[in-house]
Amino acid sequence: MAMGLSNIKKDMFHVTATEAIGIWKALNTSPATALIIFSSKSLTARTMTLSLPNGDPSKAAAAATETPFFSLYNERIRELLDAVDRLRDLKVAKEGIQLPTIVVVGDQSSGKSSVLESLAGISLPRGQGICTRVPLIMRLQGSHYRGSEPELYLEYQGKTVPTSEEDIPNAIKTGTDDIAGKQKGVSDNPITLVVKKRGVPDLTMVDLPGITRVPVHGQPEDIYEQISKIIMEYITPKETIILNVLSATVDFPTCESIRMSQAVDKSGERTLAVVTKADKAPEGLLEKITADDVNIGLGYVCVRNRIGEESYEEARAAEASLFEEHPLLSMIDKSMVGIPVLAQKLVKIQASIIGKCLPEIIRKVDEKHSQNVSELNILPRKLTNIAEAMAVFVKVMGSAKESLAKLLLRGEYDEFPDDKTMHCPARTVELLDEYTQQLHSRSSSAEEESSKNTLFLMEEIVVLKESSQVALPNFLPRSAFATLLKQKLKGVAQTPFEFTRKVWNYMEGVVVRILVSHSESYPQLQTSCRRAAYNLITKMRERSYSYVEEMVQMETMADYTSNPEYMKTWLDLMKYQEPLQQILNGSRNQNTQLEIPGFGMMEVLHLQEHSEKVEQAFDMKMRVTAYWKTVMLRLVDNLALHLLASMKNLVNEEMEAEVVKEFMGGNRGGLERLLEESTAVANKREKLNSSINLLEESKDVLAQVMDRIALESDHVE
Ligand code: GDP
Ligand code: MG
């Protein structure tokens, strides 16, 4: 049953973990310790609440042997602790997943190592200098150990080194030298010490290097910073319980370790204090721990460690009688003294922190796993042969082309619904409108300028006089017409160039962006695509410039239109020839002004002096005016048509050709270059793969422990 179910369970993790978090939250306020049971049968999270006596831990210890539930409780916690330990071995912290951890901190020589020694019943290195130079993970396993002799081994840098009680100091020293070098440097790479011994509590703790302010001989100058960094790294996560070791001989508020733990746990809710060397400074100890000047939320435990060459048993006996018989120390409540009380307290705190953190860990492992898997999936595949490379090239080209066709030609914005800069037809229309307006405003401001300086029709009369020929007087000289037209064109000739430049600058942004984004996964191709896009736009821009040049030139050199508007406008304007003549020959009384639509009210009397040219000049002005409308229309329409055709050409023909030229043109075939995976992508793939393996193993670990617990709970029911 378990085998089949472990698969289902992995898939169900997400749901059950979420449910579980809710249940945990609800239970958090309850004084009893609770356990989540993931039931295989119903695939839903159920809870099981196990009553443990609160308060007096010695009663708890007594209850441990009496309550049948306790062994089950212990069993489960042990399984969960094993799972957490295995996750620690897997180094899930690398994935940003914090594990519930008891971390021992303390100033140098405060007695940290001695406390751990007392808890484990072993001897650790001691000495003057710095002994603990790397984090030491102590994994104590007593509840299930049946051997008569303790089993001890170290694990570090992938090695497992068996050791013995007498040899532990040496073995740790060798391991430390291996990791941090033979000098007195420190490292955050841990050593794990596994202690399997009857009677020791099931506890996992981390001993950190002691805090030294002043480097001793041979220590690096920045030893304080290095050690602080390691300690902060371990005690900052809210999943960490801080076991603060304080010597009874010092003033607690002056302790460096208190300063550090307060920096990350101000209220002290996850800090427990162990006061060592009670035997050395019994005076005022009770007052010190009662006053609680330093905010220790989880309470104080006073201890007396092994001194000199005492055995573990002798030390415990000496401790027990010290707190029983000493006139001052015996006043301290029994729930606050002795290594056994400390062990009980830690086991309980450990159970509750694991329980609290586990649902979140399960959720995070699951989340990280699927995150990494999807990241891996979008990573470009490693290409192994030319055919595959060709397929990639064709695919990238095809999709880039399709995107450009959508954006430039069809005006489909589904790929960039909110990015207005990519809505090309709309932006092009905006530019075209701006261009049209500019043409008109420039043309009319040139008109205004000349009418301010010269009287009505005088410009035309001057031009006519200059182009006088020996010819019949009623023939309009073409050259005069051409001169006037040229002058008008000069006023607006720059406008189409400016517009063209703007359009292609805009297009450059779009085309580069599209090509670059489609070739993103293949850096070798991307470089070529970027270059091709620039070349392409440069080419298109140049071509448009010569088109504009030709267009303007044609307008200057020739005049023709089949547009019926021309004749209509001219005829309409010519209706004012007669009233003009009437004013000039005085047949309209005192009237000296003539109003012509598009010109306004004009003073005309000055024309009496040029009567021989007036008729021709008027005719010519009206022809130019009528024709100019057509010219302006052509300047807009022709250019718009040209640009539309260029874009179509760009998308359908030129882009691909240009990329092929850039990509395949070099000495080394572009396709072959595609086969070389970029180191960035290769590294990323490797990193993702190893993360995924790690997280999969973690998922297995968690699934297994949940399965076993579920089975056991079925069994008990
Ligand atoms: P660490 O630097 O914090 O690891 O401190 P150690 O555990 O190495 O202890 C420093 C010194 O204090 C050693 O000489 C220990 O024997 C001594 N020591 C530790 N705990 C006690 C204690 O409870 N009573 C007495 N008298 N000495 C202790
Ligand atoms: Mg130490």
TrEMBL record:
Coiled-coil regions listed: none
Ranges for domain Dynamin-type G: 96-359
GO CC terms of this entry: cytoplasm; membrane; microtubule
PROSITE patterns named among the record's database cross-references: G_DYNAMIN_2, GED
Gene3D superfamilies attached to this UniProt entry: Dynamin, middle domain (1.20.120.1240), P-loop containing nucleotide triphosphate hydrolases (3.40.50.300)
Alphabetical UniProt keywords: GTP-binding, Nucleotide-binding
Ranges where the GED domain occurs: 617-710
Domain of life: Eukaryota
Pfam families in UniProt: Dynamin_M, Dynamin_N, GED
UniProt GO molecular function: GTP binding; GTPase activity; microtubule binding
Name of the protein this chain belongs to: Dynamin-related protein 4C-like
Organism this protein belongs to: Stephania japonica
